Amino acid sequence: MNSTAARLTEGRIIAIVRGVASEDMLPLVRALEAGGVRAIEVTFDQRAPESWPDTLRAIRAIADEFNGRVLPGAGTVLTPEQVRMAHDAGATYIISPDVDEAVIAQTRALGMASLPGALTPTEIMRAVRAGCDIVKIFPAGELGAGYIKSIRAPLGHVPMFAVGGVNAANAAEFMRAGVSGLGVGGALTDRALIAGRRFDLIEANARAIVEAARG
Prior knowledge:
Elements: H1 3-11, E1 13-17, H2 22-34, E2 39-43, H3 52-66, E3 71-75, H4 80-89, E4 93-95, H5 101-109, E5 113-115, E6 117-118, H6 121-130, E7 135-137, H7 140-143, H8 145-155, E8 160-163, H9 171-176, E9 181-184, H10 191-195, H11 199-214
Parallel strand pairs: 1-2, 1-9, 2-3, 3-4, 4-5, 6-7, 7-8, 8-9
Subunit structure: Homotrimer.
Keywords: Carbohydrate metabolism, Lyase
Protein name: Bifunctional 4-hydroxy-2-oxoglutarate aldolase/2-dehydro-3-deoxy-phosphogluconate aldolase
């Protein structure tokens, strides 16, 4: 397993940051780090390419400030070119909503961890055969922990993260189903809390989810 993938598995939680203003990014990540989160996924907005420079600047800012304590990654990556841009900005892993062999190959060629999104056993094994490090089961929340437990019966050798609809109430259940970690969005990056500068509550929420994931 890629060394970054091993660290992601050890940390168990990836915080998914989407549409956060640049002035709020580092205060948010500081709060998440204080709550025990060690990996931040900054997503590309595929509907707004004009926002991509901000995405890349956020990845670079996290890489520079936290100097390896928090792993920066790029999410919603759909093309090899976006992989390259994210790598040049300092990303250490690439997360996608789908399985694209070219994206996985470029990610591996640049020494980053690859986490493509899949749902069915066929998609999962397609990702594994393409060389990914961890499969992102998405959208996990729609089908629940029972689905993951079922697919892990034949595919228990595949490292998986549950992503989509994960929160403090169901984090432990997903972990018991056999995943290696969790991708958490709104439960960690509540827009109202960010707007209200309640980074203390964001830290508390992060701590609760990290503790739930660790059992």
